[in-house]
Specification:
Layout lengths: L1 H12 L6 H14 L3 H13 L4 H15 L1 H26 L1
Length: about 100
């Protein structure tokens, strides 16, 4: 089951009409909407790996505020903190 889900994951997030970064930003926004901490961590890390900036992540998270109201402001803050953490880590790795 997990192998099948991994195949679905990889196919859904592969570059196509939308690039992988855009798809990961969408996934991060959905993770906030679903209030899934594990999903937030995974997709926050992935958006940074795909080259998204904190500003791009903030805009994607901001859309969840519109669509989900109050709960998104809680999970959105968690998601943005995760993006910042992974972004800082990536910057340190580049500098090393």
């Amino acid at each position: 089951m997990y192998r099948g889900y991994k195949e679905l994951h990889d196919a859904a997030l592969a570059a196509g009409a939308l690039d992988a970064k855009t798809k990961e930003l969408i996934a991060l926004a959905i993770a906030v909407s679903k209030e899934c901490d594990g999903c937030i961590a995974a997709h926050a890390h992935a958006v940074v790996r795909q080259g998204a900036t904190p500003a791009e992540a903030a805009e994607a998270i901001g859309v969840t505020f519109l669509m989900n109201g109050g709960p998104a402001t809680v999970y959105g803050a968690r998601a943005y903190d995760a993006v910042l953490e992974f972004h800082e880590q990536a910057e340190h790795e580049k500098a090393a």
